[in-house]
Design goal:
Length: 262
């Protein structure tokens, strides 16, 4: 795992593609396979996550042609000649609303080999995309997304909200344990402070909302639900092993989460 921060001067169109290109491509399992220079529309790009020795492969599409947000798609495959997705996809979180990442001038990314968490530090939205770090069946290419949508009536923090179906915030599998595109939910952790001043953090469990089975766990990303008493947004807390965690959200309207920094 590596943690990266980028403070940009604005939230103009194309900015999120710049940040993702700068950070995701640090990891050899990530590559950019299509973009505007190759014939896509302005401020659009496609990233591939691929493990040649394993089962992981998926494509992340960013359509970042407006300031402040990028519409996001996950695809099973991608045709870089026709600039079109191939196979299974997650484009909408409902029949009406598309997947979307809202962003401002503060970007933080927790990068792993086959997934990453993205934190919009200004709006306090904590997103997750990819293959979870712990799966109860490692032979399966389980891929998921926690995101907001084109519905902009609230600022629910996706990681803190942790509930599958929704119009403004949701979690969905590109591939669940059966290869289907289903909704997911996260377990909520209370994250209490100990008398020594550290915080107790467990694993966030991922549940398939269709089969009601746990498929795996997130590492370094905790869904806390609606409140973390005595903690404010951006505060750095430490667990019993000395790992630094940043608090995200911290109001009943945004829902709360923790992201591990190191």
């Amino acid at each position: 795992m590596s943690f990266h921060e980028r403070i940009t001067s604005d939230n103009t169109a194309g900015r999120l593609i710049e940040v993702f290109t700068d950070i995701l491509l640090i990891n050899p399992y990530w590559s950019k396979v299509d973009d505007t220079a190759n014939g896509m529309s302005a401020n659009e790009a496609v990233f591939r996550c691929y493990d040649p020795s394993g089962v992981t492969e998926y494509f992340l599409v960013l359509r970042n042609n407006q300031a402040g947000y990028a519409d996001v798609e996950l695809w099973e495959g991608w045709d870089s000649v026709t600039h079109a997705g191939v196979g299974a996809s997650v484009v909408y979180i409902s029949s009406t609303y598309q997947c979307r990442i809202w962003y401002n001038a503060g970007h933080k990314i927790q990068l792993h080999d086959f997934c990453f968490a993205y934190l919009d530090a200004v709006n306090q939205n904590h997103y997750f995309i990819g293959r979870p770090q712990e799966l109860f069946d490692e032979t399966k290419n389980i891929v998921m997304i926690l995101c907001r949508s084109t519905h902009s009536s609230n600022m629910y923090n996706p990681m803190g909200y942790g509930y599958g179906t929704g119009t403004a915030t949701a979690g969905k599998f590109l591939f669940d344990e059966n290869g289907a595109q289903t909704f997911l939910s996260l377990s909520t952790m209370p994250c209490p402070e100990t008398i020594s001043g550290t915080i107790l953090l467990g694993k966030t469990i991922i549940r398939n909302d269709s089969t009601y089975k746990a498929v795996g766990c997130l590492h370094g990303n905790i869904c806390c639900g609606a409140s973390i008493p005595g903690v404010y947004r951006g505060q750095i807390r430490y667990d019993e092993n000395g790992n630094a965690w940043e608090a995200v959200g911290l109001s009943t309207s945004t829902y709360n989460s923790y992201i591990m920094r190191a």
